[in-house]
Amino acid sequence: MLAGLADTWPARNTWAIDQLSLKYGDLAFRISQSSCKKISMKMKDYVSYMYLQHDEDPLYIFDDKFGETAPSLLKDYNVPHLFQEDLFEVLDGEQRPPFRWLIIGPERSGASWHVDPSLTSAWNTLLCGRKRWALYPPGRVPLGVTVHVNEDDGDVTIDTPSSLQWWLDFYPLLADEDKPIECTQLPGETVFVPSGWWHCVLNLEPTVAVTQNFVNSKNFEYVCLDMAPGYRHKGVCRVGLLALDDSSLEDLKMNMDYDKDDLSYADLTRKEKRIRVQEPITDPRYTTTANGVSKSYDLWKQGFSYDIKFLAMYLDKERNHYSSPWSSSNSIGPREMRDWLSKLWVGRPELRELVWKGACIALQADKWLDCLEEICAFHNFPSPTADEKLPVGTGSNPVYLLADCAIKILVEGGLEAAMYALGTELEFYSVLSKVNSPLKNHVPEVLASGIIYLDNGALKIVPWDGKGVPIVIGNCNLILENWKEDDFVFGVWGKKHFECRQAGMPMNEPINSAGCTSIWPFIITRRCKGKIFAQLRDMLSWEEMLNLTSFLGEQLRNLHLLPYPSSKNSSFSDIELKVKLPFADGYMEDIPTPEIPEEWKVFIRTLCRRKMNVTNRLENWGDPIPRTLIEKVDDYIPDDLTKLLNTFQAENGTNKSCKPCSWIHSDIMDDNVHMEPYRISTCSGGNASDPCLADNDCAVGNDHGDVDKSWCPSHILDFSNLSSGDRIYDVIPIYLDIFRGDSSLFKQFLESYRLPFLTRNQEEVIDGGDRFERLSYHAM
C-alpha cells in the first residue's frame, strides 16, 4: 500500500460523490452485478440509490468505458510513475482488452475473491471513503472459494461468496496461519496487486476509486502463460497444487527442475517465515472447514513456486498452441495475441528477448523457428534474420516473411485438415498453370512445397507437389489404400469429403490423426512487394478504393471461371460415401440420396449433417447469437436442402443446377489482399497495368513516405482455405471485411464482376414463390 502517488491529482478534490453527481448526473455508467447482461444507470439515479439502499449485496459502478462516457474524467488523474509501462498500449481501439475502471459503491459493496484476468497486475487508488482489503499469495485458495477448470480450453470459473458474506461467515473460521494479508485503504492511498494474487475488497463507507490493470516487463511472461491453450497450467496458476491430482503431485516431486534459489522462490519463502503457525482451532463445529484450509496451506508450502519456470512445467507441450481452442476468459483472442506479439517485436526491439520468451510460451515460437530453419536449409535459402524469426500476421498458421519468399507451415485443424488445405491449394495452382487466365499474374508464385516431420528427435523434410501420398503420410492411415499415385488425393474433392465427415462430429472433437502430431505440411511462395490492404485501409483515397474494388471483381470472376475438377474424374468417384447420422434413440439412419448433380452431392450431404446438430452447435458457440434466434433457426433452413440448388432436368435427362459449382477462395479479407506502391505521377487513375515501384524501401513494406504514394492492388493471397461450392459465398468476406458494408463499393464490385452469379436457365425457378429458391435468400 503506497501513499502520496495521487497528491497532485485534481480527482483528490473533485471526485466526491455529490460533485460527480452534479457534473455527470445525466450520463449513464455501467453497473456491476451478478447478471451477465450489461446494465447502466445515470449517475444521479445511482447516487440516489446509494443513499436509500439497505441491500446486503449492493449494486456498484464498475465501468471500464468511463473514459469514453466522460472523457474529462481522464484529465483528473495520471497513471502513477511506478506503473507507467503497459505493453498492451500497442493494441489499438477495440483490440485492447478492458484495462481501467471507475469504481463507486456504498458500504457493504465490494469485489469478491478473484485473481485479476490474464495474470495482469493492478493498481487501485482510493479518492474518498474507506476500503478493507484481504489478499492471499498466488496458489493459496481462500476458504469458501471453489475454482472450476474446464479441461477443454482451460476456462476458469470461480464460485465465491460475496465480499460481505465472506468477512461475516468465513473469516471468523480461520486459524491465524490461514488468515490473509489485510489492510484498510484510506483516501489518497494506492494498493498494488501483483500478478496472480487473490484479493477481496469490502467498502466500509461510500467510496470512489480508479484502478488500472497493466502488463509490464515483470509480468509479461505470466500473461503469455495464462493466454496459452490448455488447462492444467491455468489451474496451477490460480489454485496452486490443489489443481493437480495425486499422480501429478508425485511427478512434481520427482521432476522439480526449477531453481529454488531463484529470487521469486526465495521471496516466497521469506513471506512464509513471517506467518505465525499455530494449532488449528479446536471448536468441533469448524474442525472440517479449518482442517480443509490448513491442508490448502500445507500443499502450498510443499514446493509451489510462483516462478515462470515452475508454472511453465504444466503447459501441454503436445497441444498445437497456434490453433487449439482458447479460453473464453482470455482477455484477448488468439488473433489479437499474435498481432500483439508482432507489434511488440517490431515496435519495441529493446524487448525482443522478453517478447521471444513470451512467444515461446504462448505460440511455441521456438518449435516453429526450428522448422523454419530446417526448411530454409533444405531449400538453400538464407537463414532467417533476427527480424524474421517471429511469425507474422494474425492467421492460424505460422507464416514467415523472408527477404524474397514467404513460408507458411500449416497446422490449423490438425494434420488431416492441414493436408487437405495444402493439397487443395496445390491442385488449384496446377489448374491455374494449365489455363491462360489473367489471374496467374495476381497469385504469388509457388517456389516449393513439402512436409516437415520429427523423426527420432530430428527434423526431416519430404518434398510434395500435392500428387499422390507421401510415405510419411501413408503411415498415418488418413486415406484409403487404393488411390492413384498421380491423383490429387488431398485435393478439393478430398477436402469436401473430409468436411462432410467432420460435419457429423461433435464440436471440438479431435480429428483422427493420432500419432501424427509432429508432421506439418508447408508451402513457399514468392514474397509480394508492398503491403497488405489491412495496413493501408485508412490512408487510401476513394479513387484507390474504387480501383481495388474493380480489381477484386475482375479477379474473383477469373477465379470462378477456372475449370473445376470434375467429381467423375476424382479418385473418390468409385466410392459411394456412406453418410449415417446418429439419432436420439441411438439408431443410425442414412441420409436419402436426392436426384441432384454429382458435383453437389457431397455439398448437400454435408449440409444435412450440419443441420442435425445446428442448435447444439450454436448454443456451444454462445454470444453473440441470441437465444431467441437459436430457437428459430429451423425456420431459416429448408426441410429439403436441395432447394438451395435450383435443380432441373436437362433435355438429355441429366440433372442440372442453376447454381454452378466452382472454385471459391472463401477468405478474401483485408489481410489477404496485397497492394504495391506507385509514384502518384505514374499511377493516376489507379491504372495497375504499368507498375512502377516508388522506391525499394516501400517495396518491402517500410512505413515512411506512404502518404506520398499511390497504392494499386497486385495480388490475392493465402489459398489454404480454398474450397468449392456456391460463388456467392465469396462475396460475404469481401462485402463485410473489405467494403465494410459500403453499398457504392459493392455496386462497383458487381459491375466489375459482370453478373450473374447464377446461370439463369429457368427464370421461374429463380424467381419462384418458394423463398428458398429466390436469389435474395441465397445472398442472405
TrEMBL record:
<keyword id="KW-0479">Metal-binding</keyword>
<comment type="similarity">
    <text>Belongs to the JARID1 histone demethylase family.</text>
</comment>
<dbReference type="GO" id="GO:0016491">
    <property type="term" value="F:oxidoreductase activity"/>
</dbReference>
<dbReference type="InterPro" id="IPR011009">
    <property type="entry name" value="Kinase-like_dom_sf"/>
</dbReference>
<keyword id="KW-0560">Oxidoreductase</keyword>
<protein>
    <submittedName>
        <fullName>ARGININE DEMETHYLASE AND LYSYL-HYDROXYLASE JMJD</fullName>
    </submittedName>
</protein>
<dbReference type="GO" id="GO:0046872">
    <property type="term" value="F:metal ion binding"/>
</dbReference>
<dbReference type="InterPro" id="IPR003347">
    <property type="entry name" value="JmjC_dom"/>
</dbReference>
<dbReference type="GO" id="GO:0005634">
    <property type="term" value="C:nucleus"/>
</dbReference>
<keyword id="KW-0539">Nucleus</keyword>
<dbReference type="InterPro" id="IPR050910">
    <property type="entry name" value="JMJD6_ArgDemeth/LysHydrox"/>
</dbReference>
<dbReference type="GO" id="GO:0005737">
    <property type="term" value="C:cytoplasm"/>
</dbReference>
<dbReference type="InterPro" id="IPR041667">
    <property type="entry name" value="Cupin_8"/>
</dbReference>
<keyword id="KW-0408">Iron</keyword>
<dbReference type="Pfam" id="PF13621">
    <property type="entry name" value="Cupin_8"/>
</dbReference>
<feature type="domain" description="JmjC">
    <location>
        <begin position="68"/>
        <end position="231"/>
    </location>
</feature>
